[in-house]
């Protein structure tokens, strides 16, 4: 019996490249489709597994997509335009139209694909679940702009208005997205699931947590909070922390996140439903900043900028019960993962800092704003 054929779109990226390695190791025949987006790959040559076939091209190009899909059994659709950038049309064009192009080609050309696994994101949730003492588990809407503007960052119960405590967020929580990236990911997710029902080909959207690890772009100022903090510290600059630093993130190590795709290919447990993929542990942004300062430059401390980003989730720790039901469990703890990542960063040579200019762009477009309560940026080495 010949090995199954996998197409990994975005297979030169952070998650995609690790997924390719894992598929090759599991004796899949692997094809990569990647356009080597300059924002992601500007600072270093891409990591391309020599045992995988590589096609340079764009998921929006019908000729290229048709060629890439030929003879494929499972599509691992990782390609996306990502981050917290002010572009609108490009997010929709790449993330939604690109996904539609793949799905349309599979069906119209009668391709042999038996399953599509889609890289979605925890960003699709409007806000993380909370528990109210009076009303129990609640799914609040996005925080009101007028409260953020006066520095009230905590999430209130949507029924009584009292401050609620963060809870694990299950896949049944309301989704839709509060910024253009999130909207594009949710649109691709809904489009794919509907197409799967119509075509009879199973689709599995994997809602990734904040993913980090070796091969994460250090030249993309929107690539992820860990990379942003690291590049600032290595250039003698303190990490800039938005809000009060108590917002939390679920941080998933890249090999754990990539491995979920192999589970999705092997099981029918997740067919037709979104699946949270993460550690299930929330870490405050301020705690993360302090950990990285301690590792890289103890003379630096995080700075609270007195700003907030429009459409940002306060705290989201995914409920990973659905993932665990198919025996997917993370194996790399945060400190271990950070050590592996920092070891890799140390081998990358000179690293620039580009978040300062990116932040200025976000301010100019109104996506990054100061609170009325803010005066001057202040240092803080404690976690509230």
Automatic annotation (TrEMBL):
Q: Which InterPro entries match?
A: Epimerase_deHydtase, NAD(P)-bd_dom_sf
One matching Pfam family, short form?
Epimerase
**Listed SUPFAM superfamilies:** NAD(P)-binding Rossmann-fold domains
Tell me the Gene3D superfamilies matching this sequence: NAD(P)-binding Rossmann-like Domain, UDP-galactose 4-epimerase, domain 1
**Could you name the domain of life of the organism this protein comes from?**
Bacteria
Please list the residue ranges annotated as the NAD-dependent epimerase/dehydratase domain: 6-130, 174-278
Family to which this protein belongs: Belongs to the NAD(P)-dependent epimerase/dehydratase family.
Q: What is this protein called?
A: NAD-dependent epimerase/dehydratase family protein
- Originating species: Candidatus Dormiibacter inghamiae
């Amino acid at each position: 019996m010949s090995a199954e054929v996998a197409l990994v779109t975005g297979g030169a990226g952070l998650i995609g490249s690790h997924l390719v390695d894992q598929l090759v190791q599991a004796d899949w025949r692997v094809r990569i489709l990647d356009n080597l987006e300059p924002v992601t790959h500007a600072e270093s040559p891409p990591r391309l597994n020599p045992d995988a076939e590589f096609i340079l091209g764009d998921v929006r190009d019908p000729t290229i997509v048709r060629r890439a899909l030929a003879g494929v059994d499972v599509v691992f659709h990782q390609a996306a335009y990502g981050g917290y950038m002010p572009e609108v049309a490009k997010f929709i064009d790449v993330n939604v139209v690109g996904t539609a192009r793949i799905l349309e080609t599979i069906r119209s050309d009668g391709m042999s694909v038996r399953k599509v696994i889609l890289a979605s994101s925890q960003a699709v949730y409007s806000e993380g679940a909370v528990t109210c003492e009076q009303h129990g588990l609640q799914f609040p809407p996005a925080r009101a702009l007028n409260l953020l503007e006066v520095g009230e960052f905590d999430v209130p119960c949507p029924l009584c208005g009292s401050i609620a405590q963060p809870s694990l967020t299950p896949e049944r929580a309301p989704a839709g997205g509060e910024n253009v990236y999130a909207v594009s990911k949710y649109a691709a997710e809904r489009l794919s699931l509907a197409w799967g029902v119509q075509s009879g080909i199973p689709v599995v959207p994997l809602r990734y947590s904040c993913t980090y690890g070796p091969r994460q772009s250090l030249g993309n100022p929107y690539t992820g909070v860990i990379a942003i903090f690291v590049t600032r510290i290595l250039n003698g600059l303190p990490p800039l922390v938005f809000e009060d630093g108590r917002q939390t993130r679920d941080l998933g190590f890249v090999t754990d996140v990539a491995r979920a795709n192999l589970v999705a290919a092997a099981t029918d447990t997740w067919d037709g439903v979104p699946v949270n993929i993460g550690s299930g542990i929330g870490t405050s942004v301020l705690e993360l900043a302090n950990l990285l300062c301690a590792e890289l430059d103890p003379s630096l401390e995080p700075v609270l900028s007195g700003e907030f980003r429009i459409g940002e989730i306060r705290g989201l720790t995914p409920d990973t019960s659905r993932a665990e039901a198919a025996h997917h469990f993370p194996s790399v703890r945060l400190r271990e993962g950070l050590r592996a990542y920092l070891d890799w960063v140390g081998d990358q040579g000179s690293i620039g800092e580009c978040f300062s200019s990116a932040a200025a762009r976000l301010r100019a477009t109104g996506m990054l704003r100061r609170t009325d309560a803010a005066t001057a940026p202040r240092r803080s080495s404690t976690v509230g």
